[in-house]
Specification:
This protein has 13 helices and seven strands. By secondary structure, it is of the alpha/beta class. It is globular and about 60 Å long.
Length: 282
């Protein structure tokens, strides 16, 4: 499935890019949001596109010929947002976007085990160059207590204990190395693999802590009147954004999270769990 940017119309509505304004896409991924911004913030407006994955950045370098004077790419973790902005001398930021979903490329082409529907190694890292923790290491070496904790906390999985017990049983006999092995174990525990795969991905990439670290930096970087938008895909991320926005001196642009329209859901079923929250810096 080709990458379809989630809530693109809504992102443009709330970020409201104008001529010569500068934006940061903290999770550039497939780049649909970035391209939509670039179409509106010319002739001199720029976008700083960040991604942890060197392959994603490499893919982008092949397709920015029409935009190379107005797009800056940074292969880095957005927890280093202030440092990235300083390093690239990217000043006067008018809008920042966090799209916290996986790109279709990661699911369909990366070969890193993000999808339980494909037979792949249990990797789940966005950054394979500096992150040494894989999903395979977690399921084969973490204790039953640690497994149960992350499945409950990050996956909100009701059968966390049962799944953890099954994982321990199987790994005593042979290592768990593939997505299909893990999927079979979860099936035997009597539940769907989606939440376990989510929990492992969050743990491998430390996603929730990263978001908590990055949001205060984003607000500090924004110009007065600048806009910040966060697209989340599960309640844990949404809760972090909601709590942060409530406890800051912002103008809330979205009093409730914005959800995909029925039209978008028909075109892109993967958008079903997306929620957009946006603020304006006072």
């Amino acid at each position: 499935m080709p990458h379809i940017p989630v809530l693109q119309k809504e992102v443009i509505k709330y970020l409201d890019p104008k001529e010569n304004e500068n934006f940061i896409d903290c999770t550039i991924g497939g780049g649909g949001h970035t391209l939509a911004i670039l179409e509106r913030n010319g002739p001199k407006g720029k976008v700083l596109g960040i991604d942890r994955d060197p392959e994603v950045i490499g893919n982008w370098k092949l397709k920015i010929k029409n935009w190379e004077k107005r797009i800056i790419l940074a292969c880095d973790n957005y927890t280093n947002l202030k440092e990235i902005v300083q390093k690239n001398k990217f000043g006067s930021v008018d809008g920042i976007l966090f799209d916290l979903g996986m790109s279709s490329w990661h699911l369909e082409e990366s070969g890193r085990g993000f999808s339980f529907q494909k037979r792949e190694p249990l990797d789940m890292r966005y950054d394979v160059q500096t992150n040494n923790l894989t999903a395979e290491k977690i399921v084969n070496y973490w204790s039953k207590f640690e497994l149960e904790r992350i499945l409950q906390e990050y996956g909100e999985e009701r059968k966390a204990r049962r799944i953890a017990e099954k994982i321990i049983e199987v790994r005593k006999l042979k290592p768990i190395k593939s997505t299909w092995q893990l999927r079979e174990i979860i099936n035997r525990a009597g539940t769907h693999p989606r939440q376990t795969f989510q929990a492992l991905r969050i743990a491998v990439n430390d996603e929730l802590n990263n978001l908590k670290e990055a949001l205060p930096q984003a607000v500090e970087i924004l110009e007065k009147g600048g806009r910040l938008a966060v697209i989340s895909f599960h309640s844990l991320e949404d809760r972090i954004a909601k709590f942060f926005f409530k406890n800051q001196s912002f103008s809330l642009l979205t009093k409730k999270p914005v959800r995909p329209s029925l039209e978008e859901l028909r075109v892109n079923p993967r958008s079903r769990s997306a929620k957009l929250r946006a603020i304006k810096k006072l």
